[in-house]
Write a structure and sequence with these properties.
heterodimer; A: mainly alpha; MetI-like fold; 0% strand; B: mainly alpha
Chain lengths: 219, 219
């Protein structure tokens, strides 16, 4: 063994880790925002009898069954060959948002089906147009029923932002690796990095549960 | 296009051995992770006091840390403390630990879903704890847990791509090596994505088939 813990190198660069954590949260937040809009659109196609339904099913299936790292590398390294050139951040956010969209589409689909038909019928009897019924009645109720799944999706997206390190986006894992390679304080840096992740996940889970309790449908 | 197929043909052994490596890594990680995960689930369901909290912290810590961080930590830390593991072994260990925490949660959920009356009936028949677990609880829990467990297997196949970052020559790294030689990023990332999709889609369909077969009539 002969290894003594020395957190000096990690404390010296702790600001980098905080910055990386902020970057990870930002990436997850932007991605889930775009992903939620995309997922909502997809979920309406999934429950419809539209001829685009097979297309939406295929989209969801492809994004759920392909490793995220492959998708990230594809967007960043392969798409430029088709003339689609994105920066590191944009390409990562685009990939994570598309990925989140596929997962949320499934979540929303199930929840849309669980909104009682009577509510849409009530809307019809009030003379609302179909799009208004969806926008003003069905979607708000659906969103309040899926809050727990939205929270857990957000937390897992936050953990997935660690993959951005693979294309050198400066987030937590990227900086942890940098400190690791520069200082060789291996145990300390990975211990602190994983505590950052775990701590953030725990705090997020608590905050989101509070929000859920306030916003949940009364039973 | 012809050029692409020529390169694929030249690299067929590298790609196939990469795929073999991916399957081997995933299979070993799932096997070991499931074995440990069963005990984790048992502890979460039945243990009291310090053992329960120890296991609870283990599961929450692992689930709160991104897989990539687990893999990097396992790869860098084990070497430092003098446990000589190759990159493959360190990677499989990290994936198995990740898998065990998920299987633990799945097992806990499945055991919790079995009605109390089953345990009471077993007790009234005079079965001891081991027999109650093996003959009454485990068969029912397996049925409940199987779909989620198959999902975990697909997750592990996807997570195995992260081993490419620590230099394990699985399918993604084998593909990247071909790309580095041929400069054909687009078709080869696409090919890798398609292979992963095929594997995971297969696992997903298998899971659905199992679920249909094992579904209990009238539930």
């Amino acid at each position: 063994m002969g290894y003594t813990l020395n957190f000096g190198a990690v404390w010296r660069d702790i600001d980098l880790l905080w910055a990386g954590l902020g970057m990870g949260l930002l990436l997850a937040l932007v991605s889930i925002a775009i992903g939620a809009v995309l997922g909502l659109a997809l979920s309406f196609v999934l429950i419809s009898k539209s001829r685009f339904r097979p297309l939406a099913t295929t989209y969801v299936s492809i994004f759920r069954n392909t490793p995220l790292l492959v998708l990230i590398l594809f967007t960043y390294f392969a798409l430029p060959q088709l003339g689609i050139r994105l920066g590191k951040l944009e390409s990562f956010i685009a990939t994570l948002a598309l990925y989140a969209g596929a997962y949320l589409a499934e979540v929303f689909r199930g929840a849309l089906l669980s909104v009682p038909v009577g509510l849409s019928e009530a809307g019809l009897s009030l003379g609302l147009r179909p799009w208004k019924i969806k926008l003003l009645i069905v979607v708000p109720i659906m969103l309040r029923t899926v809050l727990p799944s939205l929270s857990s999706t957000f937390i897992s997206l936050f953990k997935d932002t660690s993959l951005a390190a693979a294309i050198a986006v400066p987030e937590l894992t990227y900086y942890a690796r940098k400190i690791n390679n520069e200082s060789f304080r291996v145990i300390e840096v990975w211990l602190v990095a994983s505590l950052f992740y775990v701590g953030t996940c725990v705090i997020l889970a608590m905050l989101l549960r509070l929000a859920e309790r306030r916003l949940a449908l009364p039973r | 296009m012809q050029a692409f197929f020529d390169v694929v043909w030249d690299a067929r052994f590298a790609l196939l051995s990469g795929l073999g490596m991916t399957v081997l890594i995933a299979a070993l990680a799932v096997l070991a992770g499931t074995f440990v995960g069963l005990f984790v689930g048992l502890a979460l369901s039945f243990a009291r006091g310090p053992l329960y909290w120890l296991v609870r912290i283990y599961v929450d810590f692992i689930r709160g840390t991104p897989v990539l961080v687990l893999i990097l930590a396992s790869f860098y830390i084990l070497g430092t403390v003098g446990w000589k593991l190759s990159a493959v072994q360190a990677g499989i260990l990290a994936l198995a630990i990740f898998c065990s925490s998920h299987v633990g949660e799945i097992t806990r959920g499945a055991l919790g879903a079995i009605p109390e009356g089953q345990t009471e009936a077993a007790k009234s028949l005079g079965l001891n704890f081991v027999k109650t677990f093996l003959l009454v609880l485990l068969p029912q829990a397996t049925r409940i847990a199987l779909p989620a467990w198959v999902n975990t297997a697909a997750e592990i196949v996807k997570a195995s791509t992260l081993l490419s970052i620590i230099g394990v020559a699985e399918l993604l790294l084998a593909t990247q090596e071909v790309i580095a030689r041929s400069f054909m990023g687009l078709p080869f990332y696409f090919l890798a994505g398609a292979i992963y999709f095929a594997v995971n889609f297969g696992i997903e369909q298998l899971g659905k088939a199992l679920e249909r077969r094992l579904a209990i009539e009238g539930r």
